[in-house]
From TrEMBL:
Protein family membership: Belongs to the 3-hydroxyacyl-CoA dehydrogenase family.
Pfam family, one: 3HCDH_N
Identification of the protein by name: 3-hydroxyacyl-CoA dehydrogenase
Domain 3-hydroxyacyl-CoA dehydrogenase NAD binding: 6-184
Pathway: Lipid metabolism; butanoate metabolism
Species annotation: Alicyclobacillus fastidiosus
Ranges where the 3-hydroxyacyl-CoA dehydrogenase C-terminal domain occurs: 187-282
Superkingdom per UniProt: Bacteria
InterPro entries: 3-OHacyl-CoA_DH, 3-OHacyl-CoA_DH_NAD-bd, 3HC_DH_C, 6-PGluconate_DH-like_C_sf, 6PGD_dom2, NAD(P)-bd_dom_sf
Length: 286
């Protein structure tokens, strides 16, 4: 199926990153959020990213105008998805929220629309079952920051058909991404590994094995990770990481029980970069 128009549902970090990458790739994009302030912040972030590209002479001001002309933002879900070829959902990582969103999408989207969820852990089968089109439902797991990270995990649900998979794969390629095909299982490939490594780093921190700085430095330099697991958790958001760990613990057992320090930090409101403090202090750095 040919894809020209994409609707992205959720203008948080992941949603705005997906929308930005899609308009750069030439797609017409509708970005939806229930909060108009989120949409304003998303537009400002995209303009800042393109300003940097202009400074690096990777783009001209005219190019920026043409790219931004491919984006429209709206708080009206019907307006966002009424002509969409593909909808990519990037809302809160809670199954009940996602199921509710996709039930609404099912009633509003054209019959040909493919549904993609950007979930990092959850079941596209369960999400698809909330709609009348499970064959057209798939997971496309992008990574943060979307415009830099090269991978998209494409995860088939039980009923996902080949045309939906191939469309998702071509979409990822056009957005400049490499993709891997994953058969559905909780956590897919990357989240199972990333959550496990991050959780072990948190346990080492609470046990006093080393400081947060030295744990991350050891993993970066000793295992050649581009970012330490504690800094990555701060980037993702400790509340989001906790929800992922709780889901994996429920589905996969004790190996994925969240480290107590993670639960403590979330209760304290230390959620990472977005609050200025997590395992590291970002307010003082700024």
């Amino acid at each position: 199926m040919r894809v020209d128009r994409i609707a992205v549902i959720g203008a948080g970090t992941m949603g705005r990153g997906i929308a930005y990458t899609a308009i750069l790739a030439g797609f017409q994009v509708a970005l939806h959020d229930i909060d108009s302030k989120q949409l304003t912040r998303a537009t400002e972030d995209m303009n800042r990213l393109m300003e940097r590209r202009i400074e690096l002479q990777e783009m001209t001001p005219d190019d920026r105008g043409a790219v931004m002309a491919r984006l429209r933002t709206t708080t009206d879900l019907k307006v966002a998805v009424g002509d969409a070829d593909v909808v990519i959902e990037a809302v809160l990582e809670r199954m009940e929220v996602k199921v509710d969103v996709f039930a609404q999408l099912d009633a509003l989207c054209p019959p040909h629309t493919i549904f993609a969820t950007n979930t990092s852990t959850m079941s596209p089968t369960e999400i698809g079952a909330a709609t009348t089109r499970p064959r057209q439902t798939i997971a496309m797991h992008f990574f943060n920051p979307v415009h830099r990270m090269k991978l998209v995990e494409i995860v088939r649900g039980l009923d996902t058909d080949d045309d939906t998979f191939e469309t998702a794969k071509r979409l990822a390629t056009r957005m400049g991404k490499e993709s891997v095909e994953v058969n559905e299982f909780p956590g897919f490939v990357t989240s199972r590994i990333s959550c496990l490594v991050g959780n072990e780093a948190m346990k080492m921190l609470q046990e006093g094995v080393a400081s947060a700085q030295d744990i991350d430095k050891a993993i970066q330099l000793g295992l050649n990770y581009p970012m330490g697991p504690l800094a990555l958790a701060d980037l993702v958001g400790l509340d989001s990481r906790l929800r992922n760990m709780q889901y994996l613990h429920q589905k996969l057992g004790e190996t994925y029980r969240p480290a107590p320090i993670l639960e403590k930090y979330v209760k304290a409101g230390r959620l990472g970069r977005k609050t200025g403090r997590g395992f590291f202090d970002y307010a003082s750095k700024s």
